[in-house]
């Protein structure tokens, strides 16, 4: 029996649907999906099995024009993820077409593509008529020699099986890289922090976009099979702390309930979740916070 295994990097602009595609391929919620751009901070890997092949997905932060240290570290992580992969899949939103951001990624691809297969996935195809899709596909293929082009809807699942089968066949022959039952190589503490951060992002919408981070400080296994998880939400100002807590603590309580429910479903066991909010004015400049997120502080220089 010949087994195959390798790394596939999904790249594209923020909100191109990379996390949605990863979750659909893997069949579990591994990467955070919100409607805010830039929610994936770390290279979360999801593992999908297809026949005798093991596809390890590197979900990279969206590629965009970086302004701050955190942005620069995220963009470096995205290109780093692509450079480490066997296959790169560029995701482009059908209804947005070739934006300035896509132009920049196409320029960067030439360098990254040496020695690896690059495919194109045009996502959200249900939003545009067929003839427009063909035009977009032709225009993109004229700019770069993609090995294959896939028309998909990550949200609805259209075209996703074809893409997964093709990826599996393209990967190098190799023993599997992970035990078959392991979905993600991110430590559970980090996944738990990401789940809480997603709930905060959804709950607070525009009020506090990227000025907060969540860390799992303590994880205690209990005799009855449950676990106690203590997390800290770091914000930059006292005013932010008030927003996260909400009136009489209602906001943080609702966030905690939503995160706990999802953790219980994900881990299939009872979870006791305790959240604290702390002000750390300079967390965006602390090397330790970056390594917690799987990013390199130096990349932000």
Average of pLDDT: 81
**Low-pLDDT ranges:** 31-41
The largest pleated sheet is described as: 6 strands, mixed
Helical coverage, percent range: 25-40%
Strand percentage, roughly?
Answer: 15-25%
Number of strands: 9
Tell me the span between the first and last alpha carbons: 47 Å
Shape: globular
Q: What order do the strands of the largest sheet run in, or round the barrel if closed?
A: 2-3-1-4-5-6
Structural class from helices and strands?
Answer: alpha/beta
Query: If helices are DSSP runs of H or I spanning 4 or more residues, what is the number of helices?
Result: 9
Looking at the chains present, what oligomeric state does this protein adopt? Answer: single chain
Global Rg = 20 Å
- List SSEs in N-to-C order: EHEEHEHEHEHHEEHHEH
């Amino acid at each position: 029996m010949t087994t195959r295994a390798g790394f596939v990097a999904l790249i594209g602009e923020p909100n191109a649907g990379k996390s949605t595609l990863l979750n659909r391929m893997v069949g579990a919620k591994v990467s955070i999906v919100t409607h805010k751009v830039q929610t994936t901070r770390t290279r979360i890997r999801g593992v999908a099995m297809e026949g005798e092949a093991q596809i390890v997905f590197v979900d990279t932060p969206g590629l965009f024009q970086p302004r701050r240290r955190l942005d620069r570290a995220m963009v470096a992580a995205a290109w780093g993820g692509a450079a480490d992969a066997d296959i790169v899949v560029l995701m482009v939103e059908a209804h947005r077409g070739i934006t300035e951001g896509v132009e920049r990624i196409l320029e960067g691809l030439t360098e990254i593509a040496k020695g690896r297969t690059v495919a194109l996935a045009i996502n959200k195809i249900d939003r545009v008529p067929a003839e427009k899709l063909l035009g977009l596909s032709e225009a993109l293929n004229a700019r770069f020699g993609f090995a294959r082009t896939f028309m998909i809807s990550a949200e609805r699942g259209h075209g996703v099986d074809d893409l997964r089968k093709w990826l599996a066949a393209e990967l190098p022959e190799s023993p599997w890289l992970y035990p078959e039952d392991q979905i993600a190589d991110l430590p559970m503490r980090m996944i738990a922090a990401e789940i809480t951060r997603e709930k905060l992002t959804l709950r607070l919408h525009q009020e506090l976009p990227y000025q907060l981070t969540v860390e799992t400080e303590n994880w205690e296994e209990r005799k009855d099979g449950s676990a106690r998880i203590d997390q800290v939400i770091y914000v930059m100002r006292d005013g932010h702390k008030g927003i996260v807590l909400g009136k009489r603590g209602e906001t943080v309580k609702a966030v905690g309930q939503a995160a706990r429910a999802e953790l219980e479903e994900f881990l299939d066991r009872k979870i006791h979740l305790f959240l604290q909010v702390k002000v750390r004015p300079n967390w965006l400049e602390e090397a330790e916070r970056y390594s917690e997120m799987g990013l390199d502080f130096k990349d932000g220089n």
